[in-house]
Design brief:
The protein has 3 helices and 12 strands, in the order βββββββββαααβββ. Helices cover 23% and strands 21% of the residues. A hairpin with a 2-residue loop joins β10 and β11. The longest helix is centred in the middle third of the chain and has 39 residues.
């Protein structure tokens, strides 16, 4: 179930451990009301949302374990104000951005942040260095240039292959040359009626039989204008 809203009402609570309870829903900002709390363990649930910036009001906290949840967004820089923190475990969430470096964060190790693949910060945390605004813009521009080059290169390859294909087929005679096309345009096909073909072949007589092909029998014939033809 969800984290009960009433948790913020236990103002005198010192220790809270509700780990591994299949809790879900967003992180409760109302927990910041528990200003006497020293130990907070919400690990191994499916709590999502952002870590509340108001946790810096809980000045007595010495242990915060929010590991193995689905928390997202940035780690609030305001947590640097918690001067009694000995243990801060934010591992295996979906956090992003820069890991704060001030306050007690200077004493933390990489184990506090492992499993958050979009974090950046100091090398000791085993995460990439954070890019400033100019570097991020340069990286973004470089990515656009690479993408444009890749698209342009692909188009160039297609054009070259097309030209090679046209040249190959012309050499093989697969494409007609312009002068041949013009010559073919001057040819007209003659259409003869079935009666004319009967007369030309003497009613398809055996005397005019030439042989059989895959499409049927072939007969020789003479049209009225004395043109010799083969009729199938």
């Amino acid at each position: 179930g969800h984290l009960p809203l009433s948790l913020g009402n236990f103002s005198m609570m010192i220790n809270m451990d509700i780990s591994a309870n299949k809790l879900n829903g967003e992180f409760l900002a109302s927990l910041s009301k528990l200003q006497m709390l020293k130990y907070l363990n919400l690990s191994w649930n499916t709590i999502d949302g952002h870590i509340s910036k108001q946790l810096d009001h809980m000045l007595n906290l010495d242990t915060i374990d929010l590991s193995h949840n689905k928390l997202s967004g940035k780690i609030p820089k305001s947590l640097e104000k918690l001067q009694h923190i000995q243990v801060l475990d934010l591992s295996f969430n979906q956090l992003e951005g820069e890991i704060p470096s001030g306050g007690k964060f200077a004493n933390l190790s990489a184990n506090s942040f492992i499993g958050n693949y979009a974090l950046c910060g100091a090398p000791k945390f085993h995460v990439p260095l954070c890019l400033n605004k100019t570097e991020r813009q340069s990286k973004s521009n470089a990515a656009r240039v690479i993408a444009a080059c890749a698209i342009g290169g692909s188009a160039f390859v297609v054009i070259v292959c097309t030209l090679i294909g046209i040249s190959f087929y012309r050499k093989r005679g697969m494409l007609k040359q312009p002068d041949e096309i013009e010559r073919l345009r001057g040819i007209t096909l003659r259409v003869s009626s079935y009666r004319e073909l009967l007369h030309a072949t003497s009613n398809f007589s055996n005397a005019n039989f030439l042989g059989n092909e895959s499409f049927g029998s072939v007969y020789k014939g003479i049209l009225l204008d004395e043109t010799a033809v083969a009729v199938k």
